[in-house]
Amino acid sequence: MPYRTIIEPFRIHSVEAIDFPDLPQRQAALDRAGYNLFGLHADEVIIDLLTDSGTGAMSSEQWAGMMRGDESYAGSRSFYRFEAAIQKITGYSEIIPTHQGRAAERILFAAIVSAGDVVPNNTHFDTTRANVEYQDAEARDLVIAEGRDPSVLHPFKGNMDIDALEATIAEVGVDRIPFVMVTVTNNSGGGQPVSMENLRAVRAVCDRHDLPLILDACRFAENAWFINQREPGYEDVSPLEIAQEMFSLAHGCTMSAKKDGLANIGGFVAMNNPEVAQQCRNLLILTEGFPTYGGLAGYDLEAIAQGLEEVLHPEYLRYRIRSTAYLADKVHAAGVPVMRPPGGHAVYLDAKGLLPHIPAHAYPAQALAVELYRNGGVRGVEIGTVMFGKPVADGPDEPAPMELVRLAIPRRTYTQSHIDYVAEVVIDVAAEAESIGGYRIVEQPPWLRHFTARFEPI
Question: Across all residues in the chain, what is the average pLDDT?
């Protein structure tokens, strides 16, 4: 029988109470946090859409697996289950656990990225870019033109621009490119997917120039579902088979298992190159832990292994993608500019389109994110010039390509009524858009400033 409404493919087993701070309490929290939503206490937030990383609900099977966790320091049986689960999906022989995705990036990039290098990507996310730049290298974004315009409809707005990739290789030379990276789905660009056709084209360029291809695979399952739904020839191919083909086109990957691993912590580096893997393991032992736990408890390894199986279930993916699109469709129908078509894990509000009176150096996306919290206790995150702009001495920041507010949906956590509430808050804030003002930064660190910078209203 065909589905009328796509329902959650689970029953709620336990619940967690939500706090409801009133408007004066929310304003006081903003003042204390310097208008940085990362500085809020969790109990000051009503609906928390800051990130989908590690914030989802785990299944009964994952909790059961945690009870079986083997906490042996070396050779834990939980590691071998973790390793087998990753190898089934990726086909890679070398599996290196880390405590989360940025640790995987740090270890891999420290091993193979040198000063003066250039790393092409469709779009680097924040920690990926920071870890490249920490090596005194350049993180270069090469997403297709459609991926930089929130209003343009395109089924695979995360695709890499193949001509731009070839031009980059010709400009800087193969010797200065340690690898090419593709992020699936493209988080900074609106959670947009990458097609199999595009991955094959990137791999062909890499093969011609003898360059490794690395996937940032945090949301590989969501990307596989988009391929199943949108790319001709994959309608009857399972998400697992699509994921296996995606990984077969790359030489390795980094991953935060806090996304499509359905776990609260964890990540890994995986590849087929034993020499590079040994370099990574040497750094792993120095900074994370022994190679069979890598900064994780045995029960975390068990939770990830089970989560990697569950994340590829078609019923889960159908619900996951549709629940995100539901929010995007609702606010778009009310006239709020959003990234279209909706991405996989989040709804991206177009702050530049909603607040054209606020220039980029006054951080329109930060202003919009603050108002969503002030109005209704909804916490999102700025994906704009605060996060990706480049500070300029004695002048305004070089602006980011887009000014977005990401509302990231934690997995298996909120119900439709929660999402309806979020939509109402967004629509209410949009109705008062002309009254929203910009912000200035009064304090910022040298790296990843969006996490701890402090702001004041202009």
Answer: 95
CATH number at 60-310: 3.40.640.10
C-alpha 101/C-alpha 109 separation (Å) is 12
420 CB-near residues (< 8 Å, 6+ apart):
330
Checking 430-435 for CB contacts under 8 A at 24+ apart, the result is 430/331, 430/334, 430/335, 430/336, 430/354, 432/371, 433/354, 433/355, 434/357
| Residue 280: C-alpha distances to residues 11, 86, 109, 212 (Å) | 41, 17, 9, 16
pLDDT of 185 strictly over 60 = yes
- Give phi and psi for 252, each to the nearest 5: 180, 180
- Read off the tokens for 140: 């270069």
Sign, Cα dihedral of 28, 34, 37, 40: negative
Helix, strand, or coil here: 289?
coil
- pLDDT by residue (tens digit) across 77-94? 999 999 999 999 999 999
Give the C-alpha distances (Å, rounded to integers) separating 93 from 122, 267, 288, 292, 429: 26, 16, 20, 14, 50
Nearest to 91 by CA among 306, 214, 312, 248: 248
Secondary structure of the chain: what % helix, strand, coil (to 5)? 45, 15, 40
Collapsing DSSP states into helix, strand and coil, what is residue 142? coil
The distance from CA 222 to its chain's CA centroid, rounded to whole angstroms, is 11
How far apart (Å, rounded) are the C-alpha atoms in residues 258 and 297?
14
Q: What is the CATH architecture assignment of 23-52+313-457?
A: Alpha-Beta Complex (3.90)
Reported as a single tens digit per residue, the pLDDT across 208-221 is 999 999 999 999 99
Q: Would you say 36 and 453 are in contact if contact means Cβ atoms under 8 Å apart?
A: yes
The ranges assigned to domains in the chain are 23-52+313-457, 60-310
Residue 391: its H or E element: strand 390-392
**292 touches 79 (CB < 8 A):** yes
Q: What token pair was written down for 276? A: 């590079």
Using CA atoms, how far apart are residues 216 and 319, in angstroms rounded to an integer?
23
CA dihedral over 212, 144, 100, 399, signed as positive or negative = positive
Can you tell me whether residue 158 is helix, strand or coil? coil
Sequence-distant (6+) residues with CB within 8 A of 92 are: 86, 247, 252, 253, 270, 271, 272
Q: What is the pLDDT of residues 312-364, one digit of tens each?
A: 999 999 999 999 999 999 999 999 999 999 999 999 999 999 999 999 999 99
